[in-house]
């Protein structure tokens, strides 16, 4: 950015991005690059627009072009990390996020993405550590608090999960992601009524999000009386550690096999019956529309 006109054009693109008018922002950025054909900031800006438009291949291409011109361009690294995260390319993500953190150690979003990756892999302690680092930078970020609440629920630290949930709600500004993770946390704690409430809010804010829809339907199913009766013993298992669950399972296999088989049969039957019941309640007798 060498002139006042360049700064003005750049600011205009940023404003269009904030308004979510991405196609217009892209046109303006493409005009800008004609004036500054070797400016890495403009290449990174275009990469970010493509990222926001979910065109990840193009986003990665433009971020690579920016980094070829300026190896430590921060926005370009941010785009690269986000693309690899979205594509579930674990190794590429790990390498990219480490380099990105070296360049910009105060970008809290990197720690958030790391935490989600760790949670997917079952590395819960590492996920918690990453979230605590994110919260050191932004202590009141509701999304980070919500994900930490979910992580604590996975760790069977239910009281801490509830405490973090309350703090996240105090700072939440109607974020669908916050409601989503709080819903996951409450579901893992066995509170499906609360999960239904959170997922309903998430779907209200993002009605086309398939993952939110599925979790909302799951909450409805778990709140069906038949399913609640069948899953009543699971409420106690949730409070046990993994090794305790394993021992309970071995004991059941050795001494209570007929009852265990009966439970499995009843679970399968109740699962499909309640799933069908929820489908009829939500979508009627027709097929669900994608």
From TrEMBL:
Q: Keyword Transmembrane helix: yes or no? A: yes
Stored SUPFAM superfamilies: TPR-like
Which Pfam families does the record cross-reference, listed alphabetically?
TPR_19 (PF14559), TPR_8 (PF13181)
- Transmembrane stretches in the record are 245-269
Alphabetically sorted, this entry's keywords are: Membrane, Repeat, TPR repeat, Transmembrane, Transmembrane helix
Q: Which InterPro entries match?
A: O-mannosyl-transferase_TMTC (IPR052346), TPR-like_helical_dom_sf (IPR011990), TPR_rpt (IPR019734)
Descriptive protein name:
Tetratricopeptide repeat protein
Give the species this sequence originates from.
Paenibacillus campinasensis
